[in-house]
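Technical annex, item 7. During the second reporting period the consortium partners agreed on a shared format for inverse folding records so that results from different sites could be compared directly. Each record opens with the tokenized structure and is followed by the designed sequence. A conforming record, contributed by the partner at site C, is shown below for reference.
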């Protein structure tokens, strides 16, 4: 089964922020190493990290008119920060992988969605 893991950082310290700088160098390296280890896991197809939610543009169409709004559609705390795909035997394997993603333990969350094949 193929799953998409949607990574939301929430309150997780982000590189360049005062909260990130408050972490020790060892803590910063450990977080980076954990992300790298997840990307190297068998069955993982790494995605990409996204710019901050404030850089987003939301688009909708009303009465045939295209409308744009600066910023994300959701609250910044809930915004998508990155993603990856994971080919796994079952949901339990995807949950185990999601638990290894630093955002899941540092104030964010990881949403797991099965990929719908043959749409």
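Designed sequence (site C submission):
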């Amino acid at each position: 089964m193929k799953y998409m893991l949607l990574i939301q950082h929430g309150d997780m310290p982000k590189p360049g922020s005062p909260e990130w700088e408050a972490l020790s160098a060892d803590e910063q390296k450990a977080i980076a190493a954990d992300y790298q280890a997840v990307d190297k896991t068998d069955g993982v197809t790494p995605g990409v990290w996204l710019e901050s939610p404030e850089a987003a543009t939301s688009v909708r169409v009303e009465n045939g008119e295209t409308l744009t709004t600066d910023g994300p559609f959701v609250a910044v705390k809930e915004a998508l920060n990155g993603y990856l795909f994971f080919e796994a035997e079952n949901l339990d394997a995807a949950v185990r992988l999601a638990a290894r993603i630093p955002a899941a333990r540092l104030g964010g969350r990881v949403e797991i969605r099965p990929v719908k094949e043959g749409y």
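The CA atoms of residues 32 and 49 lie 13 Å apart. The chain has one domain: 2-114. All partners now use this format for quarterly exchanges.
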